[in-house]
Amino acid sequence: MSENPSFYRFPLGAFEITSLLDGSAKRDGPYPIFGADQKEEDVHALLKQNFLPPTRYESPYTPTLVNTGKDLILFDTGNGPGGRDTGSGLLRDVLAKAGHGPDQIDIVVITHGHPDHIAGLMEGDEPAFPNARIVFGALEFDYWNKGENIPEARRQTRELFMKVAAPFGEKATFIDPGDDVVTGIRAIEAYGHSPGHLVFHVESENHQLLIWSDTCNHYVASLQRPDWHVSFDNDHEQAAATRKKIFDMVHTDRIPVHGYHMPFPALGYLDKRGSTYHWVPTSYQFNL
Ligand SMILES: [Zn+2]
Predict the structure, then answer these.
(1) In terms of residue numbers, what domain contains 211?
(2) How far is CA 229 from CA 36, 57, 63, in A?
(3) Ligand 1 centroid distance, CA of 259 (Å)
(4) What are phi and psi of 113, to 5 degrees?
(5) pLDDT digits (tens, 9 = 90+) for 124-154
(6) Which ranges constitute the DSSP H helices of the chain?
(7) Tell me, what's the pLDDT at 86?
(8) If you measure from the C-alpha of residue 111 to the centroid of ligand 1, how many angstroms do you get, rounded to a whole number?
(9) Counts for the chain of helices (H) and strands (E), in that order
(10) In a domain, 2, yes or no
(11) Could you report the per-residue pLDDT of 58-86, keeping only the tens digit for each?
């Protein structure tokens, strides 16, 4: 059994960011979850070229905590109680290790309605973060709440959403792209992975970070080949267009990214070699 760090904290201007590891899944793949529209051997070749095994991969789950000094804001809630048999759903333990009780969270922001992001909203029959105001993307909340045009593969996601997320609807805050969660944290449209998927630009004292959630879910397959189909994406073409838009933005602005499914601590930059983006994990940039 390997033992790894489960949280990583660093300053971003006057803010403090903590990357929290809810756990990780080990799966067969990435093909055909990634690159189902490609030849299997081409997907294997790209992974081998990047020093990764071709037929097994690890997918971490990494909620982000932003302490603005005024508010403690959690982005996504991990796999919750249902994940604990399979090595995830550990967010509450990791939060405690990082020095925070669940009752201290002021705001929970949900980037989109998929299970690994919403399941931790409830702990049994109780809200997992009893004092938190919940923030949803308006479009995303409506999509799951109305339940029209849900693909067969997302039936269970919809059931879970109605159980753990919909009950917060009455008291929740609903935002659109361009809206601020608080001063310094702005929602950006990143539709495609889910119909109303949002990412968040964080800025304090001229230091920036993009919390890109599930814009890109494998740091090689989806980053070097943004067009390859990803089975978790709701709309393949829209998700690919969003990847390219977001990649271009963070590369041009040279800002660090926090990615929910990027290798822990889920922080990196994008380098462009020719027309291909590459993930550059952060090293000591935030420790200085
Ligand atoms: Zn996810």
Answers:
(1) 7-287
(2) 6, 17, 24
(3) 10
(4) -90, 25
(5) 999 999 999 999 999 999 999 999 999 999 9
(6) 40-49, 91-97, 115-118, 138-146, 155-164, 221-224, 236-253
(7) 87
(8) 9
(9) 7, 18
(10) no
(11) 999 999 999 999 999 999 999 999 999 88
Report pTM: 0.98
Q: DSSP state, 34?
A: B
Q: Name the residues around ion ligand 1, CB cutoff 5 A.
A: 116, 214
Q: What is the C-alpha end-to-end distance of the chain, expressed in Å?
A: 32
Predicted pLDDT at 4: 81
Give the DSSP letter of residue 2. Answer: -
Check which CATH number belongs to the domain holding 23 and give it. 3.60.15.10
- Dihedral, 76, 262, 98, 4 alpha carbons, nearest 10: 140
Give the whole-angstrom CA distance, residue 42 versus residue 19.
33
Residue carrying structure tokens 């059994």: 1
> How many structural domains does the chain have?
1
DSSP3 helix / strand / coil % (the chain, rounded to 5):
30, 30, 40
Q: How far apart are CA 20 and CA 59, in angstroms?
A: 14
Q: Which residue has the tokens 């990412």?
A: 199
* pLDDT beneath 70: ranges in the chain: 1-2
Distance 214 CA to ligand 1 centre (A): 5
Q: Are 18 and 64 in contact (CB under 8 A)?
A: yes
- Three-state secondary structure call for residue 91: helix
- 8 A C-beta contact, residue 19 and residue 266: yes
200's enclosing H/E stretch is strand 198-204
Q: Residue 61 in contact with residue 263, Cβ under 8 Å? A: no
C-alpha to C-alpha distances, 97 to 33, 69, 81, 86, 214, nearest whole angstrom: 33, 19, 18, 20, 25
Residue 199: inside a domain: yes
Q: Is 21 domain-assigned? A: yes
Q: Phi-psi bin for 254: left (phi > 0), alpha (psi -120 to 50), beta? A: left
What distance in angstroms lies between residue 260's CA and the mean position of ligand 1's atoms?
7
